Amino acid sequence: MGCIGKFVFTVIALFGFSLLGWISLVPGTSFFLAAFWTVLIVLLVDLLLLLVKALIHVLALPFTVLTAGFLALIIEAVFKYIGLWVASSWTGMFTLPWIFGAFWWQALLIGFVFVIIGIITTPTSSSD
Hints:
Shape: globular
Order of helices and strands: HEHHHHEH
Distance between the termini: 19 Å
Helix content: over 70%
Radius of gyration: 15 Å
């Protein structure tokens, strides 16, 4: 699916979370523009935090094995949320629940959804 799929699913996710009231778009902002900047900024933040994320995954490896990989998903969701939070701060187009606030579980679920979007839109190649 690649970039177009990631963009389409990001628009759908922003729209869905907006309907739930978990993400608030600034009046006058389109979902398409917010999704475009979100995809670009999250990609940039993911690249910048790549080494930090790798180090945390290595340090958490024993606990990841004990939780059958669930801890790895939580770590990915937190880092994806950080990217979304930076996108929200830089663009000012939408607001998110704070991950250390009362609605931490909403922030974590938002991160999980964007991790799943990243997984399903990753291009795969077949060797025929």
